[in-house]
Amino acid sequence: MSDGLHFNETLYPGVQVSYTCDEILYQEKTEHQDLVLFSNPVFGKVLMLDGVTQVTTADEFIYHEMMSHVPILAHGAARDVLIVGGGDCGLAEEVLKHASVDKLVQVEIDGSVVDFSREHFGDFNQGVLDDPRFELVIADGIKFSAETERRFDVVIVDSTDPHGPGAVLFSEAFYRNIHRLLTPGGVLVTQNGVPFLQKQELVTSIERFSRIFKDAAAYVAAIPTYFGGHMALGWASDNPDLRRQVVSVLEERFRAADFTTQYYTPDVHAAAFALPRFILDAVEEG
Ligand code: SAM
């Protein structure tokens, strides 16, 4: 919703987040969703899809670093990585910082989000589309995951919320497809909303993970853009040891990876799995 001077996010009943808008930079009704990019004095460039904030230039680093470096460094030997969604390509940029990753496939339903991001988000997705390890597939993630014969060590679901085209990416059928295409001991990470406001989303995903994977869990990060406190990132693997990596091992791997971060540290990684009681309750309910 916009009055020209503000954009209001109405994702949650009873709460409305209002961003002042300095300038509308781009607006398009794509084949799949309503896309708008505007500038805000605090968040920089803000991308909304169907009225829901997706990414901002000011704090994308928190979300993208925690979605990528946590599973890749916990795994320790990830060569093949799959991103589902992630149209702005900020997550891809972080994954490709790992020289150990040989191949990154990104399956995004909406090619116009990628085209648009190439033009407007060069500040954080520089070089991704020209990296020979990167392969972009424009397709629905549920269809790709049902049909592909490829296998991946790490799968990251950078989806919209469970409404519109993103809804299928929270289904049990989709999680079963991902389980099938993970290599033994591989890991799935998902964006799972803000538990203070979207508790049921986390409960439902954990319930579904638990029916399929040996280990179903969540970790958290505080991302100002995703209003309401901690954001939960879902975690599912058949290797329960992966999320219990000791800090000294993570430190060694992070040092070897040899790049800098703005949010991720091995201590933050380990601590992110320590859940506040109300979030742990949601996970245990699931
Ligand atoms: N970080 C954001 C958040 O937490 O709100 C989400 C990032 S945004 C890049 C999510 C992307 O998922 C969008 O580009 C959207 O087009 C894509 N997407 C939605 N449904 C999809 C589907 N079924 N298959 C593949 N991509 C999908």
From TrEMBL:
Q: Does the keyword Signal apply?
A: no
Which pathway does UniProt place it in? Amine and polyamine biosynthesis; spermidine biosynthesis; spermidine from putrescine: step 1/1
Catalytically driven reaction(s): S-adenosyl 3-(methylsulfanyl)propylamine + putrescine = S-methyl-5'-thioadenosine + spermidine + H(+)
Q: Name the EC number(s).
A: 2.5.1.16
Cite the binding residues for spermidine.
64, 88, 158-161
Any idea which residues are catalytic in this one? 158 (proton acceptor)
The record's listing under Gene3D superfamilies reads: Spermidine synthase, tetramerisation domain, Vaccinia Virus protein VP39
Is Ubl conjugation set as a keyword in this record?
no
Family the UniProt entry places it in: Belongs to the spermidine/spermine synthase family.
Checking PANTHER family in the record gives: SPERMIDINE SYNTHASE, SPERMIDINE/SPERMINE SYNTHASE
Q: How does it assemble?
A: Homodimer or homotetramer.
Q: What is this protein called?
A: Polyamine aminopropyltransferase
Query: From which organism does this entry originate?
Result: Roseibium salinum
Q: What gene does the UniProt entry assign to this protein?
A: speE
